[in-house]
Input
Amino acid sequence: MNTQKATALLQEITQKFSEKTFPETCAKAFINVPGIPSSSWSLGNQLLMLFGGTADARGYNQWIKAHRYVKKGSKAIYILVPMIRKIKDKNDEDTEKTATIGFKTMPVFAYEDTK
Output
């Protein structure tokens, strides 16, 4: 199911590139607002958030920490999160490296869907 969601996200990004509103949306992604987690997201995930119609999106537990609660029936925006694994170096047993082995989708919710 994650492959289907990732494919849908990529299709949405491709569609937005062909729309005339893309430059305006893209410009908003370059404005980092201190104090919100999405400021540290990749450009692609920030664009997905903006295409979802919000300037602040967070995971369910992040909203709880911010003393806000996701409204029942709210639909998530899905971002892409890298899956990182530690790999032991074959030449040196004491050395560990990290590698991205793929991506998974992560649901986040817009500020407008919280109370």
User: Anything to note?
Assistant: The chain has one domain: 2-113. The chain is about 35% helix and 25% strand. Residues 2-113 form one domain.
